[in-house]
């Protein structure tokens, strides 16, 4: 099994390598791929030193799987070239997510749709992943009608430059800025570019990707996405209206039975999910579960996950695991 990690030097690329090692993914030969400026640099993986190579060399070596975290424009250009060489690409960017010819996959929900013909597979947006994982069993049993979601997203979702900005501001140092405003001691209600309807691209990703992953265009989603000065994970406040009536006991049972979900909900002992709890974990943590007293068949819940792991690297590796286990590569 020859595996390429494209964008190996980035935050998510580094996390992908960590997850591959932790999950004992069957890598016989590893190709670490990055931009031309990084070619020739050395990186370690499981005690062995590797030399970073460029795109064309990686394509020539025809890996069975290439896990991409190199940005949308690079994915648009290079993923088809890998696919033409027979490689199955799992892409972490937004480049292919809404392409009707490409699958948008969260393994717990829709990996069974994958076939050997799927040569470019899209990894969803980090905020969408944790939300749909939390809602998976609830949707099957009660049918989600409408979701109102507000996100509280870690600076790690922007990348190293944003982490550096936060740390520099905390230390009182000048440095390069990822955001138009200070992020320390601040909240920025703006992730990605604004679109004509007044929503940001990140907000519309959550709207459109949720429908595609869950295979249900009737689900209505409205989102507000916000960047906050934390590291460790993204948090979401969900207000979910269902078509069916439910009891809290039923909701707890469905959540406990949902693959990838851990319920952390004991307010008497001040137990609820926080980014510091999700950091380094693959599970989606769900808490503050309560019935909305203003509207029938509606639930409030708080959902937290490590955006670099289940929101990106782990989900991509889980897709690759599914491909190998079901002999699709």
From TrEMBL:
Q: Which Pfam families match?
A: Semialdhyde_dh, Semialdhyde_dhC
Residues that hold phosphate according to the record? 97
Q: Which residues form the active site?
A: 126 (acyl-thioester intermediate), 234 (proton acceptor)
Picking any one GO molecular function of the record gives: protein dimerization activity
| An individual GO BP term | isoleucine biosynthetic process
Record field: catalytic activity: L-aspartate 4-semialdehyde + phosphate + NADP(+) = 4-phospho-L-aspartate + NADPH + H(+)
For the ligand (substrate), the binding residues are: 153, 227
Q: Where is the Semialdehyde dehydrogenase NAD-binding domain?
A: 2-117
- Kindly tell me the pathway this chain contributes to: Amino-acid biosynthesis; L-lysine biosynthesis via DAP pathway; (S)-tetrahydrodipicolinate from L-aspartate: step 2/4; Amino-acid biosynthesis; L-threonine biosynthesis; L-threonine from L-aspartate: step 2/5; Amino-acid biosynthesis; L-methionine biosynthesis via de novo pathway; L-homoserine from L-aspartate: step 2/3
Asked if Oxidoreductase is a keyword of the record, the answer is: yes
The answer to whether keyword Transmembrane helix applies is no
Which EC number(s) are documented for this chain?
A: 1.2.1.11
Q: Which family does it belong to?
A: Belongs to the aspartate-semialdehyde dehydrogenase family.
Subunit structure of this chain's protein: Homodimer.
In terms of PANTHER family, this protein maps to:
ASPARTATE-SEMIALDEHYDE DEHYDROGENASE, DEHYDROGENASE, PUTATIVE-RELATED
Cite the NCBIfam families for this sequence: asd_B, PRK14874.1
User: What is the documented function of this protein?
Assistant: Catalyzes the NADPH-dependent formation of L-aspartate-semialdehyde (L-ASA) by the reductive dephosphorylation of L-aspartyl-4-phosphate.
What name is this protein filed under?
Answer: Aspartate-semialdehyde dehydrogenase
Q: Which organism is it from?
A: Rufibacter glacialis
